[in-house]
Specification:
By secondary structure, the chain is α/β, with parallel strands linked by helices. It is built from ten helices and 13 strands.
Length: 314
């Protein structure tokens, strides 16, 4: 039985259409300076005719290529998404067909914490011996549920996909993970959609979300490191959910991690929800910052609220 779930391949994909802050300033009351100062975002990618599955397929194929395995070798596919292509069937089954896999596949919905929840779920399959090769994908087309006339949310979100391939390992991989949820804050961040007569858009109480995110993620990071018996100075990189640069900076400061050890892709990607952590991870792996043996801390929080962490030796 394998003790660890090791990441053996990463991949990502961004749709080619880019929406800059200056583009947004032409349609809503905002400026590049206002958006950059408050969020750290300068641009985001947006789908035209591509689906959530299309983005996931490209990211998955890149991850499989790096891992050096064929889709037929997969034992399981878990797709984290807030924006499935249909109510049913699961977008993961569409992805399974698209990449030529023949394993079980299911969607997992935990919004911006989705990749953390999916990765932790995959870890349990490998740890128990129920699976050995697992594809975990975060893929989002959030532009379809953004009200582009709402300045408070239109500036934040983007589309994209990120993926990892996990394999059983006896010596290195996921070291520790923690998950939490608290449904008392449902109204702070939600999409109102009853599938009958209402088109749903993202609605957010920004100040409340900021405070909750900083407090929960800071406490979570400290607990995760303590339980894993690892000090923050032994971390090589923190790879956080890319929601807002002020949240990322505040958490890093509270847990005494310098910003030069934090992977930040927010400037170019915006908030891509479940895709943001694997997108940032793949970016840093491919540009050489993250190397084999590095200790990584993934953290994410999303509507629900749900939040979690995964400590990985890459």
């Amino acid at each position: 039985m394998n003790k660890f779930a090791r990441i053996i391949g990463t991949g990502s994909y961004l749709p080619p259409t880019i929406v800059t802050n200056d583009d947004l300033s032409k349609t809503i009351d905002t400026t590049n300076e206002w958006i950059t100062t408050r969020t750290g975002i300068k641009q985001r990618h947006k789908v035209t005719d591509e689906t959530t599955c299309d983005l996931a397929e490209k990211a998955a194929n890149h991850a499989l290529e790096m891992a050096g395995i064929n889709a037929k070798d997969l034992d399981l596919i878990i797709l984290a998404t807030t924006t499935p292509d249909k109510v049913f069937p699961a977008t993961a089954t569409m992805l399974q067909t698209a990449i030529g896999a023949s394993c079980p596949a299911f969607d997992l919905q935990s919004v911006c914490a989705g990749f953390i929840f999916a990765l932790t779920t995959a870890q349990q399959y490998i740890k128990t011996g129920a699976a050995n090769k697992i594809l975990v994908v975060g893929s989002e087309t959030l532009s379809r549920i953004v009200n582009w006339k709402d300045r408070s949310t239109a500036v934040l979100f983007g589309d994209g996909a990120g993926a990892v391939v996990l394999s059983g390992s006896s010596d290195t991989g996921i070291l520790h993970s923690k998950l939490f949820s608290d449904g008392n804050y449902l109204s702070s961040l939600q999409v109102s959609n009853n599938y009958i007569n209402e088109v749903g858009f993202i609605k957010m109480s920004g100040n409340e979300v900021f405070k909750i995110a900083v407090n929960r993620l800071s406490s979570l990071a400290k607990e995760t490191l303590k339980e894993a018996n690892l000090s923050s100075d032994k971390l090589d990189w923190m790879v956080p959910h890319q929601a807002n640069i002020r949240i990322i900076s505040a958490v890093a400061k509270r847990i005494k991690i310098p910003m030069n050890k934090v992977i930040v892709t927010l400037e170019n990607h915006g908030n891509t929800s479940a895709a943001s952590i694997p997108l940032a991870l793949d970016t840093a792996v491919r540009d050489g910052r993250i190397k084999k043996g590095d200790n990584l801390l993934f953290e994410g929080i999303g509507a629900g609220f749900s939040w979690g962490s995964v400590l990985v030796q890459f």
